[in-house]
Amino acid sequence: MVTAKWLRLGSDVLGWTATATGAVGLALHFGRWSAQPLVLAASGASYLMAGAVIGLIALAVRRRLFGALVAGAIAATAVWTQAPLHVATAAAGAGPDITVMHANILFDRGADPEVVVSRVRDRDVDLLTVNELTSAGVDGLTRAGLDELLPHRYLVPGELASGTGIWSRFPLSDTVEHDGFVFRQLSALADVPGAGPVAVHAFHPVPPVFDAQDWAAELSRLQDILDRSPADVPAVVGGDFNATYDHAQFRALLSGRFADAAEQAGAGAVRTYPTDKPGPPLVAIDHILVGNGTAVAFDSDDLPRADHRSVVARIRLDPGE
C-alpha cells in the first residue's frame, strides 16, 4: 500500500514537472531574451517542450483531467511552433535552380580542405559561404582545387573565427564588407544565368557565449541589412548564425521576404553543432536563408575535424524579369 501511494505521488510529480518543463520551453521560444543564461537555454527549447508530452501521458494515466488538459494545451502549442519546419513549401515560379552550401571550417586546425572541396564537387555547388576562414584556410582550399570549381570569390580572411568568404560559379560584383561587427559579414552580387543578379550574403554574428546583448544587437543589424536589400533581386544567405529556430531574434530575420531553407524544404531541425564532442550534434545554428526563391531540398554533410556540419540547399529562384 505504501509503495502504491508513493508511485501515485511520483507519477503526479513527474507529470506536473514535465508539464512545467514544456511551459519553460515555450517561454524560451517566444521570448526575445537578451540575458545570456536564457539565450543559451533557448537553444534547447524544443527539447524542453517535449516534456509536455511526457506530462500529458503521466497525468492522463493518473486521470488528472485538469492537469492533462494543461499538458495537452502546452504540447499542442509546442507542436504548432515546430510544425513549420516539417511541412515543405511548394516551389513557385520557373526560375533556375542553384545549389548553395555553407560551411564553418573551424579556422586553421579545422575541416580538411580536400573534404570541403569534395563536398562542393559531389553536391555540384554553385555558391559557397565559409565562416572562420583564415589565410591558411584560403591557401588550403586553393591547393585542394576549390577555385577550379568555383572560380569567382570574395574573401576577407581573419584571425581564428573572424574571417568569412564567398566562392561562386558565377561572376561576382558589388562586393561589400559590412562594418561594425566582431566577425566579417560579406555581401556580393552573383550574375546567375536565367535569374540575373542574385544577392549573396555570408554572415556570422558573434556567439552569445561571449556577450548575449552583442549577439542580439548583431542579429538585429543583420536584419537591417536584409531589410534594405532590393526587393526585386533574389537573395541567398549562408551563415553560422549562432542561433536556432527557437530564438526569436533569428525568427525576426524571417519576418520579411526571407525564409529559412530548412523550413521551406520541410527538412526539420537539421542539427549541425557541435560535431567535435561525443554523440550527435545537438543544435541547428547553421542556416541558409532565401529571398525570392524556394528551397526544394535541404541537407547537411559531415566535415571531419570541424565542429560544425555543413549545410546544403537546392534553391529554385524566382524567374528574372
From TrEMBL:
<dbReference type="InterPro" id="IPR005135">
    <property type="entry name" value="Endo/exonuclease/phosphatase"/>
</dbReference>
<keyword id="KW-1133">Transmembrane helix</keyword>
<feature type="transmembrane region" description="Helical">
    <location>
        <begin position="12"/>
        <end position="31"/>
    </location>
</feature>
<keyword id="KW-0472">Membrane</keyword>
<dbReference type="GO" id="GO:0004527">
    <property type="term" value="F:exonuclease activity"/>
</dbReference>
<keyword id="KW-0540">Nuclease</keyword>
<feature type="transmembrane region" description="Helical">
    <location>
        <begin position="37"/>
        <end position="58"/>
    </location>
</feature>
<feature type="domain" description="Endonuclease/exonuclease/phosphatase">
    <location>
        <begin position="102"/>
        <end position="298"/>
    </location>
</feature>
<keyword id="KW-0378">Hydrolase</keyword>
<keyword id="KW-0255">Endonuclease</keyword>
<feature type="transmembrane region" description="Helical">
    <location>
        <begin position="65"/>
        <end position="83"/>
    </location>
</feature>
<keyword id="KW-0812">Transmembrane</keyword>
<dbReference type="GO" id="GO:0004519">
    <property type="term" value="F:endonuclease activity"/>
</dbReference>
<dbReference type="InterPro" id="IPR036691">
    <property type="entry name" value="Endo/exonu/phosph_ase_sf"/>
</dbReference>
<dbReference type="Pfam" id="PF03372">
    <property type="entry name" value="Exo_endo_phos"/>
</dbReference>
<protein>
    <submittedName>
        <fullName>Endonuclease/exonuclease/phosphatase family protein</fullName>
    </submittedName>
</protein>
<keyword id="KW-0269">Exonuclease</keyword>
